[in-house]
Specification:
Elements (H helix, E strand, L loop, with lengths): L15 E5 L5 H5 L1 E3 L15 E2 L5 H12 L4 H6 L3 H7 L5 H11 L2 H11 L4 H5 L5 H10 L2 E7 L5 H7 L6 E5 L20 E2 L1 E3 L4 E2 L12 H10 L1 E3 L7 E7 L5 E5 L2 E5 L5 E6 L5 H11 L8 E7 L6 E5 L1
Parallel strand pairs: 3-8, 7-9, 13-14
Antiparallel strand pairs: 1-5, 2-12, 4-10, 5-13, 6-10, 11-12, 14-15
């Protein structure tokens, strides 16, 4: 059962699958699913951009310096309303926004702006700093969670890696699920599921990239580089991602560092057992979906194809 990849992303016409280990029947039982921080994923390059400097010389001269020397800049900050922080910095916590709000209305801001506007500051701003990439990753790790999905349910490598050697199962989630329709998210990239791109080289970036844009999409482009770019070695996964800010009102922290979002029963479409799934797992799943709110869920057993290296599915 191969799913075509020539889908239209905006309308989410693609099928979405989640490979899980045998013990993850809690997803079905509790109707919730984890949004995992990058540090907990299996790729050490997650969210690890090639960030070596705060900015380039071009960015300083064409973006930052004109901004810092704008005659009305100080007045803008003096009248800086709190809603501007909420709209433009949605990933910050309330406490962080309050600290920034306090700073931008203090005399310390003028001192900082004058120091940055001094051309003598340029060498320090464009000097390579080896810890920028890891510091950015660590910061983002506390702010975003990722739900990793795929467009295929017949990938033998993924069955082996993510279902404990074909002992687990695959959940097919509805593209119409509310977790993929997050219209309240202020960051557009977080409103629906996104396709991962695969590259040979890590994306280059500076911390000023978020502001360096003529059409206001600099921050979105930076997030795309950060969350939606992986090595070519992972291309076989054909990954789709739903991302969520951990401060989102629909996100719950059930244990320290464990963040989830609830699933409606209609979010679960089908279950596919691995070729090595045992009777204990099957009995457990069947008892869960026997509940009236999950009676619509289809159940399939995967079987080894008699001639080819692939699995096929038979309805139970």
């Amino acid at each position: 059962m191969h799913v075509p990849t020539n889908f239209i992303l905006s309308s989410i016409t693609v099928r979405l699958f989640k490979y899980v280990r045998p013990e993850r029947t809690d997803i079905l039982e509790n109707l919730c699913i984890r949004f995992t921080q990058a540090s907990e994923l299996n790729d050490p390059f997650e969210q690890l951009l090639n960030v070596s400097t705060l900015m380039t010389e071009s960015q300083y001269r064409n973006v930052l310096h004109p901004l810092l020397t704008h005659p009305q800049l100080q007045g803008i900050f003096n009248d800086f309303p709190s809603y501007v922080m909420e709209e433009n910095f949605p990933i910050l916590t309330k406490a962080e926004r309050q600290r920034i709000q306090k700073f931008v209305t203090s005399p310390d801001l003028k001192i900082l702006l004058n120091a940055l506007a001094d051309p003598d500051a340029l060498p320090k701003l464009i000097t390579k700093q080896p810890d920028l990439s890891s510091n950015l990753k660590n910061n983002l790790n506390t702010r975003f969670g990722i739900l990793s999905l795929t467009t295929r349910n017949d990938n033998l490598t993924m069955w082996s890696h993510y279902t404990l050697d074909h002992k687990g199962f695959v959940i097919e989630l509805s593209p119409e699920s509310q977790i993929f329709q997050n219209t309240k998210a202020k960051i557009k990239l977080l409103r629906t599921v996104q396709k991962v791109s695969y590259k040979r080289h890590r994306p280059n970036a500076t911390l000023l990239d978020a502001l360096d844009s003529n059409n206001g999409d600099g921050f979105t482009n930076l997030l795309k580089k950060t969350f939606l770019t992986k090595s070519l070695d992972w291309k076989y996964e054909q990954e789709m991602r739903m991302m969520s800010a951990l401060t989102d009102e629909d996100v719950r922290e059930i244990y320290p560092g464990i963040f989830i979002r609830d699933l409606r029963p209609s979010s679960i479409l089908n279950i596919f057992f691995g070729v090595n799934s045992d009777s204990v797992l099957k009995s457990r799943v069947m008892s869960i979906i026997a509940h009236p709110n999950l009676s619509h869920v289809g159940v399939f057993q995967s079987l080894l194809h008699e001639e080819e290296y692939k699995v096929i599915f038979e309805r139970i």
